[in-house]
Structure formats: C-alpha cells, structure tokens
Design a protein that fits this description.
This protein is of the alpha+beta class and 234 residues long. The protein has two domains: 14-172, Pnp Oxidase, Chain A, CATH 2.30.110.10; 184-214. Helices cover 21% and strands 30% of the residues. It has four helices and 13 strands. The two termini are 38 Å apart. Bound molecules: flavin mononucleotide. Flavin mononucleotide binds at residues 16, 28, 30-34, 48-50, 53-55, 79, 82-87, 130, 163.
Length: 234
C-alpha cells in the first residue's frame, strides 16, 4: 500500500552545490539544490533560483555562473551559504572560501570545492517560484587528487555531499556497479576485474613502499589545491 501525497519535489539524492556569480572582486555565493544535468552534447546544466535571491540578478545580468560541488565536510558552509544572503555579509570572507579565477567566466571558482563547472547561461525560464537558468558548461576543473593512475576522474573519492529531503548526507564511496555493468559481457567483466585487481596491487605496493620509507603509513590528502582542466563527455 502507498500513501498519496500532494505534488511535491521528492526526488533524491540532489547535490547541494555552491553557486558563485559576479566577479573576482564582487562575488556572490549561494547554495542550490535545484540543479542537474540536462544534456550531454553540448554539456548543459541548470540552476533554479528564486528571483528574490541576491544572486539571481547578479547571475541574470552577467549570464554566467560557476557550480562548485561540495564535500560532506563542507556541509556547514553549504548550509550557511543557503541561509544567509550576500545582502547581509560577504559569505566568502565569513566562511573562509578562497577564490580562484575561472578560464572562461568572470565568476570565481571556490578553491576548496573538488570540482568547479564554469557555466554560460543560454536561457532563463520563469517557472513559478523559481527561474531556471539553463546553461552550457564551458569548462570543468577537477582537484588533481581525484585522478587515478590511468588519468580517470574518480569522483566517488571526493566524499561528496548529498541533500535528501531536507537533510545533508555523505555519499558513500563504495561502488556497487558502473554504467552498463548489468549488460556487460562476461569476458569484458573478467578483463575489467583483472585490471582493477592489478591496479589495487600496484597501489598497495606503492603505499607500503612510501610507508616504509617514512617509517609510518602516509596520510592521504583529498585536497591538493591544484586543479586540472578536463573535458567531460558522456
Ligand atoms: C540546502 C539548500 C538548498 C537550496 N537550494 C536553493 C535553490 O535551488 N534555489 C534557490 O533559489 N535557493 C536555494 N536555497 C536558498 C538560498 O541558497 C538562500 O536563500 C541564500 O541565502 C541566497 O543567497 P543570496 O541572497 O546571497 O543569493 C537553498 C538553501 C539550502 C540550505
């Protein structure tokens, strides 16, 4: 049996991202959960923003913004940026958010966020409570620590933050499958498993070597502060 509720926004999990707008000197930052991907080629996203938000007009006038993905360890900053307006205070300063210049847009990237998507608005759609800023993703920056030895981005390593029905939750890092695993040929599956085992072995050996060199196991740092520009096609 199911209980039927009135129409609502019960979709999960949503990201709770930090959206930045403006310029390096005069910047805005706000939290948004109403965001997602709408097209692969060209890569397109949207952010829905209420007209009363300070960021709304800044982003509408500039036609640009940056989506900064958040880590579970940034839940406090994410919540705060979603509760206090730039009209009241400089949230970058208050939260110690460091700015990095983008490659294409004038809005700043947040250095502490593991991934930053530079976006150019292509259309603003008035939907009701929110205006949807439909935008093309024009550059993607990823923390260097998230690349594996083969140069692939392992986003699950970032410890990302999810927003589920009013609550903040950490996204688990244990994969239960990858895209297409349900229809993968046994031969391919075997090949992939062997490659993954080999990679784990190499990693363990490297770790052990580094540990014995220093006399203790090395701590892994998720954030290096360095960025890598990638183009992400799916
Ligand atoms: C988890 C969370 C998600 C939010 N998602 C949105 C959203 O998608 N769209 C929106 O307009 N406001 C959203 N807000 C509210 C704004 O972030 C908030 O009003 C913020 O203070 C606006 O900042 P500004 O006035 O500096 O632009 C969210 C707040 C939180 C805490």
């Amino acid at each position: 049996m199911k209980k039927t509720l009135k129409p609502g926004t019960m979709l999960y999990p949503l990201p709770a991202v930090l959206v930045t707008g403006g310029t390096m000197e005069e910047s805005t930052v706000m939290t948004a959960a109403w965001t997602g991907i709408v097209c692969s080629e060209p890569p397109m996203t949207y952010v829905s923003i209420r007209p009363e938000r300070y960021s709304h007009d800044v982003i509408r006038d500039a036609g640009e913004f940056v989506i900064n993905l958040t880590k579970a360890s940034q839940a406090f900053e994410t919540d705060y940026a979603g509760c206090v307006s730039t009209r009241k205070e400089d949230k970058f300063e208050r939260l110690g958010l460091r700015k990095l210049p983008g490659d294409v847009v004038k809005a700043p990237l947040i250095e502490q966020c593991p991934v930053n998507l530079e976006c150019k608005v292509v259309e603003v759609k008035e939907l009701g409570s929110h205006d949807m800023f439909l935008a093309q993703i024009v550059a993607v920056h990823v923390d260097e620590a998230l690349f594996n030895r083969e140069g692939r981005v392992c986003l699950e390593k970032a410890g990302l933050l999810a927003y589920i029905h009013g609550g903040y939750l950490p996204l688990g890092s244990r994969k239960i499958g990858t895209f297409g695993y349900s229809v993968m040929k046994p031969k391919t599956k075997k090949k992939k498993a062997a490659a993954s085992r080999a990679a784990s072995k190499t990693k363990a050996a490297l770790k052990a070597r580094a540990g014995s060199k220093q006399g203790k196991p090395q701590k892994k740092s998720v954030f290096t502060g360095k960025r890598v520009l990638v183009s992400d096609k799916k």
